[in-house]
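User: Teach me something about this protein's shape.
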Amino acid sequence: MRKGKFYIKTFGCQMNELDSELVRRMMEERGYEYTDDPKEADFVLINTCTVREKAARKAKHLLRYFSKREKTTVVMGCLAQQEKGKLLKWGADLVVGTRAFVEIPDLLENLNGSGVVCEEIGLHYRTDRRLNPGQYSAYVSIQYGCDNFCTFCVVPYTRGREYSRPAHEIVEEIKNLDSQGVVEITLLGQNVNSYHDGKYDFADLLKLVEDTIRNIKRVRFTSPNPRDFSYKVLKVVAESDVITPWIHLPLQSGSDRILRKMNRGYTKAEYLDQAAMIRDLMPYGTITTDIIVGFPGETEEDFEETLDVVRRVKYDGAYMFIYSPRPNTPAARYSGQVPYEVKLDRQRRLIDEVNRGIYERRRLFLGREGEVLIDGLSRKDPSESAGKLFNGLTVTVNGRYKPGTFVKVRINGIQGLTLKAEPLVVALR
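Assistant: First, the predicted structure itself:
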């Protein structure tokens, strides 16, 4: 029996995207129908993020908007975990914490007109996931929560303490995805390289996954923390034909003084040693990063230390953020908050420096051949397709190809910071 239509809006990280995918499947199994149009929906689910202020603000705006239009509104994710009952006052019918999303179908069926908060039930994962037709890429959660307690971050408070899924459970889920024709998976965790289920560490798990798969050609992972990175993991990646040589190595700051205030657990010198090791083992691999400008107390000298790391590493990509205080984090109470105009100026200078390094790195790939996994058509030119090389770099390819197709290409140009390529041989899935 049809129970109504639902719509899901997702903010934030890949972990939220995976949670939304699982909720969608559970809802459909219970007889609800998914729609891409919120106007048609009887139920609106908003999966929220509080890592960035802008994402939290947008989620609250959508909550108010849909609740005024007589939609049954469900708020899940980190904002739900953090704000809890406050969201009921803003119009939510159901507020579900980060570890309770599996209860959403049951909770919806038992709503009696009064708002409900379901904060925590416990972790539950399914290894028998069924994918949508044509889906060629999938996320797999391997680790949940975080024990690092960086002073600017809300994740330990919204996602909880670290928990590593048993390796055998992860392998079963990947076998299931492999049997459905998936060609790419991304292993997810707040701090994947601290994974340990009591028997296997992260490097061991990567080897288990590699030995398990048959159809899957690419295994990615995100996000690691530099304080826990090991040579053992990097060696597994460097020697693998399926684990992609893309390392996301969040810097946050190049100043030892600021890194201590952030509680990051590593120094500038240690970080540079790790980056050098990655470049030595994987010269054509990629290093991407996260950087925060304007952390409380950051001086011009501190910022110059960050620029120095950027110049020396020469990143292949970077997410660069202006610091914004997050509720209930230690850094929000620190003195020495940097004026917005100063933060904005530093961000602009940082972007320029990062882009110089990116362009220099892109030039290394001119004339090289590689295989691109097509994501879809290029947004700028519909006569071209866009996809990613094995190392994660985005490439636009002349011609229109089906998403999920592998295309052999030769890199022949750079447009902006994007590599351009000519197709050589199409390798059908």
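Now, about its shape. Residues 14 and 188 are 7 Å apart (CA to CA). The chain has a mean pLDDT of 93. If you'd like, I can walk through any region in more detail.
User: That's plenty for now, thanks!
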